[in-house]
Structures are given as structure tokens and as C-alpha cells.
Design a protein that fits this description.
The protein contains 8 helices and no strands. The protein is an all-alpha fold and 142 residues long. The chain has one domain: Orthogonal Bundle (Globin-like), CATH 1.10.490.10. The chain is elongated. The chain starts with a helix and ends with a helix. 16% of the residues are buried. Bound molecules: protoporphyrin IX containing FE. The site of protoporphyrin IX containing FE has 22 residues, from helix 4, helix 5 and helix 6.
């Protein structure tokens, strides 16, 4: 192999390695579309909740702007983004709502539809849902 071809081959290999490393280092936050992606997911979730008769009544007395901001902040933090959640604890927030397992599942379906519409990959969707599932005991009554 000529010197030039060897050099080219090395350059291609180095670029390929670089590409792989970048892909692996992407945080879930990046895979959700960063701050603007998460804001769009939360906005989409609000539309879904508005159409979800099982869940909508729970939001009757909610300050929706606060909910929108705090949820986006929290999704950003648990996806390893650059935010710090500044809202109330999950147990405190949800205890008085007496949320049932069916209502929890319905909200998860709403979230999945909102992520689908934003073009979030199934892998990133599942990664986020897995992290949210850890909060289940604090959110569902029982
Ligand atoms: C893992 C899943 C969930 C997460 C991460 C989450 C997150 C949050 C956050 C960050 C807030 C705002 C807290 C604050 O104002 O300081 C909130 C409020 C609220 N969440 Fe959730 N939530 C989840 C599941 C659910 C489910 C399943 C329901 C109902 C089916 C629900 C209903 C509500 C309601 C109604 C409020 C407003 C409470 C109020 O107005 O006082 N949440 N949630």
C-alpha cells in the first residue's frame, strides 16, 4: 500500500472512531432534543392531557404554567441535562391526588404520544420511561 493510501486509511479510521465516541457520549438530554425538545414534549403532553378524560380532572386546580416549567426542569435533570429541579418533591406534589395505577399508565401513554410526535427514538423514549418508573411509588397512591 502506498504511503498516501495508508495515510488516507488512517484518517478514515480516526474519523470513524470519533463518530462512534460522540454517539456514545450523547446524553439522554441530547437524544430528547435538548432544552427546546423537552419544552416541545411538555407542550405536547399538555395537549394530550387536555384530551385524556381519565387524567384531566386531576389538573382542575393546577397552575399550568408552573406545571409546564417544573416538569420541563425535572425531565431535563433526570435526562442528565444542565438543569436543577426546583419544584416540590414527587411525594408531596402527588399525595393528595390519590393517583391510581390506571391514571399513571394513561399519563405515560400521553407522554409516549407526545414523544412520538417530536420524533424521539424508541430507545430514548424507553430510557426516559425507565427513569420515570423509579418515581412510581412516590406518585401512585397505595
Ligand atoms: C413519573 C411521572 C411523573 C412526574 C415526573 C411528574 C412530575 C410532576 C411535576 C414536576 C409537577 C410540578 C411540581 C411542582 O409544582 O412543584 C407535577 C405536578 C402534578 N402532577 Fe405529576 N408527575 C408524574 C406523574 C403524574 C401522574 C401519573 C399524574 C396523574 C395521572 C400527575 C398529575 C399531576 C398533577 C395534577 C400535578 C399538579 C399538582 C397541583 O396542582 O398541585 N403526575 N408532576
Amino acid at each position: 500500500m502506498s504511503g498516501l493510501r495508508k495515510l488516507l486509511l488512517l484518517a478514515i479510521l480516526a474519523l470513524a472512531a470519533c463518530g462512534t465516541a460522540t454517539r456514545e457520549e450523547r446524553t439522554l438530554f441530547d437524544r430528547l432534543g435538548g432544552t427546546s425538545g423537552i419544552e416541545r414534549i411538555v407542550a405536547g403532553l399538555l395537549w394530550e392531557i387536555a384530551e385524556d378524560p381519565l387524567v384531566l380532572p386531576l389538573f382542575a386546580n393546577t397552575d399550568i404554567e408552573r406545571f409546564r416549567t417544573k416538569l420541563a426542569e425535572q425531565l431535563c435533570e433526570i435526562a442528565d441535562g444542565p438543569c436543577r429541579y426546583s419544584g416540590d418533591s414527587m411525594a408531596e406534589t402527588h399525595r393528595h391526588l390519590a393517583i391510581t395505577p390506571a391514571q399513571f399508565n394513561s399519563l405515560v401513554d400521553d407522554l409516549i404520544r407526545a414523544m412520538e410526535r417530536e420524533g424521539v427514538t424508541v430507545g430514548a423514549q424507553n430510557a426516559l420511561l425507565q427513569r420515570l418508573a423509579r418515581m412510581y411509588p412516590d406518585i401512585v397512591a397505595g
